[in-house]
Amino acid sequence: MHEGKILDNQGNILHNRATIIQNIVAAIDATQPKLFDGNAKGATYFQSKDVRHDWANYAARQVAEDAASAGAWWTALKQAGMSPDGLSSASPDDVYYPVFPNPDLDKWLAADASTLAGSLDEYDPGLQPRLLAVVGPPGAGKSFALRLARARCAADEIVIIPSGVASQLPLRDMAQQLAPDVTFDERWRSLDGQIRNTYAETILNHYESLAANNARGQLTIAVELEEGAYWQEVEPFWLQFSILCAQRSRLKMLLCAPPQDLTDELLTHEILGLSEPRTLKIGQVNSHIRTVSEQRGIDIETALTRAKELWDAPNRLGVRMKHLALIDAARIVLQVAHELSVAEHTT
Predict the structure, then answer these.
(1) CA 104 to CA 47: how far, in whole Å?
(2) Are 23 and 58 contained in the same domain?
(3) What is the DSSP letter of 39?
(4) Within a 10 A sphere around the Cβ of 299, how many other Cβ atoms?
């Protein structure tokens, strides 16, 4: 759709297209999980069944091949009053999910694209580049970063685009998917560098036009660059696309789980920042404990004591499988909330 007016045969205004577009954007935005800020510092959280489902399903896949870890996980879920799908058995509408701080990502998402640097030699250590890669082992929050970015940006200030690895589309078809409103010449079939450059420039021009028409005048491009047999086919395109994107002051690009070869190339070009997993501390868990305690009328000191007991348990999942520390920390918050909410209602 394009902005403008819709007229009847007599030239009278029936609809203002800009108003229609705003309604569509609002409807799309309403389907996305919303972020909330708790009373405690750092206690940002989702209220979303989808987020809880994805959390539980991801954990189940990660522990599936280790019987002891799988047993510990299912026991912990039961103690937290949750079914295998991650929802409360007694209160399915209780869909609190804690988000733990990722300082590098949070700062980057909040920054205006125009204040970020196109290359590392342009800025001081306090500034970040326009390209940010979220890296780390499974469970470190790489895919979750896409959801977080989507929640922190207005609907018209972010595009989440496919990498082409799963679909295995030819380059022209992939380009058409990235920019549906652009017509790509049928003759552009070659995969040589000049054609890749033309596609990338054309798509970025399209994204810059989108950026120019939103309130902040910028656009975040987010993509999950999963590994796969087809990666070698699309890697040259994503390298060229990323290099060119770094030169666009209205755009910034979030690369989630980029394969190592792309990460190395972009680091060599000195245009990439890294968001790496940091050690999770109990203080970050306690921020959420304070928030849920205040929300549910639970004694905070009792809740903090119980959280420490669960945190110090020697065989908990986050200790057995260190890369699942974030997943297990969320479980601790939800388990404390469940146990003490039940206790409040039975006394």
Answers:
(1) 23
(2) no
(3) S
(4) 12
Domain that holds residue 306: 35-100+280-346
Could you tell me the two tokens for 314?
């020697």
Where b means 16+ CB within 10 Å and e means fewer, 90-116 reads eeeebbbbbbbebebbbebbebebeeb
Q: Which amino acid makes up residue 316?
A: R
pTM of the predicted structure, to 2 decimals: 0.83
Taking only the tens place, the pLDDT of each residue in 102-142 is 889 999 999 999 889 887 665 566 678 999 999 988 888 89
Provide the pLDDT for residue 31: 53
Per-residue pLDDT at 269 exceeds 70: yes
Q: Burial, 26: exposed, middle or buried (Cβ in 10 Å; 0-12, 13-18, 19+)? A: exposed
Task: Give the count of domains, the chain.
Answer: 3
**Running DSSP on this structure, what letter comes out for residue 322?**
G
The Cα–Cα gap between 158 and 114 comes to 15
Strand ranges, E, within the chain: 5-7, 13-16, 35-37, 44-47, 96-99, 131-134, 158-161, 219-224, 251-256, 272-275
Q: Are residues 202 and 146 in the same domain?
A: yes
* pLDDT at residue 10, as a whole number: 52
3-state DSSP helix/strand/coil % of the chain, to nearest 5:
50, 15, 35
Looking at the structure, tell me whether residues 160 and 245 fall in a common domain. Answer: yes
